[in-house]
Design a protein that fits this description.
The protein is an alpha/beta fold and 261 residues long. The protein is 40% helix and 17% strand. The protein has a single domain, classed as Metal-dependent hydrolases (TIM Barrel, Alpha-Beta Barrel). The chain is built from nine helices and eight strands. Strands 1-2-3-4-5-6-7-8 form an eight-stranded parallel beta sheet.
Length: 261
């Protein structure tokens, strides 16, 4: 069986409360051997849930932060919890953090200030940054460069930019992660972007429960479905599925510093 890693999933959330263990079993049956759970949605209970899941499942790793949508709500207590959890041995990255100028759920300057502060936390603990960036690529690259994020490494998750954006992130030293969006009919610029990212910088993800890939679009997404995304990314990268899978497993292990065996 071909092995995969889902580099970005939200299986800690309430959408999976009724059948989380079944979902994880389906992932393993599909070859998904490791899952990075993103503890960053809503309030800090997401970070706590992600870490708790990683503590009890050796195939699950956690990240912690507050999503750009929610940074307007942050309090000193939220920051204190992130500071504490950032050093947890099952926490492999800080994120998702970044800029979302499409929805603007939080004020843009608040997003930028939180992004800077989370990059500083990542550098303090020596862990990479998982970046959520939508309609703000130039602004995000400026912050990443100004604050030395490349020193700890990072992932541009659920990439939705242009090939030029992808190439710019690669030139800065970052990895680029492709979600189920790459399978959508109107996503040709994202498929084109796969071709400019070197194989050793590509990651794949579900971002579940969101963005289920074709042919599962419209359903609740889950880690087992990352296989469908991998098939399209492999085709666009011009490599066999097994080669793409092996590369993305190795890339994810390297950037997040967890074992491949």
């Amino acid at each position: 069986m071909i092995a995969f890693t889902d580099s970005h999933a939200h299986v800690d959330g309430p959408e999976f409360d009724a059948d989380r263990e079944v979902v994880l079993a389906r992932a393993r049956a599909a070859g998904v051997q490791r899952i990075v759970v993103i503890g960053a949605v809503g309030d800090t209970s997401s970070a706590e849930r992600a870490v708790a899941l990683a503590e009890r499942d050796p195939d699950v790793f956690a990240t912690i932060a507050t999503h750009p949508h929610d940074v307007d709500k942050m309090t000193p207590d939220w920051w204190a919890l992130h500071e504490r959890l950032a050093t947890h041995p099952r926490v492999v990255a800080i994120g998702e953090t970044g800029l979302d100028f499409y929805y603007d759920h939080s004020a843009r300057e608040t997003q930028a200030e939180a992004f800077r502060r989370f990059i500083a936390l990542a550098r303090k603990v020596g862990k990479p940054v998982v970046c959520h960036i939508r309609d703000a690529h130039a602004e995000s690259r400026a912050i990443l460069a100004e604050h030395g994020a490349a020193e700890v490494g990072g992932v541009i998750h659920c990439f939705t930019g242009t090939p030029e954006d992808a190439a710019a992130y690669v030139a800065m030293g970052f990895h680029v992660s492709f979600s189920g969006i790459v399978t959508y009919r109107n996503a040709q610029p994202i498929r084109d972007s796969v071709r400019v990212v070197p194989l050793d910088r590509i990651l794949i993800e579900t971002d579940c429960p969101y963005l289920a890939p074709v042919p599962m679009r419209g359903r609740r997404n889950e880690p087992a479905f990352v296989v469908h995304t991998a098939e399209v990314v492999a085709r666009e990268a011009g490599v066999p599925l097994a080669e793409l899978a092996a590369a993305t497993v190795a890339n994810t292990a390297r950037i997040f510093r967890f074992p491949t065996g």
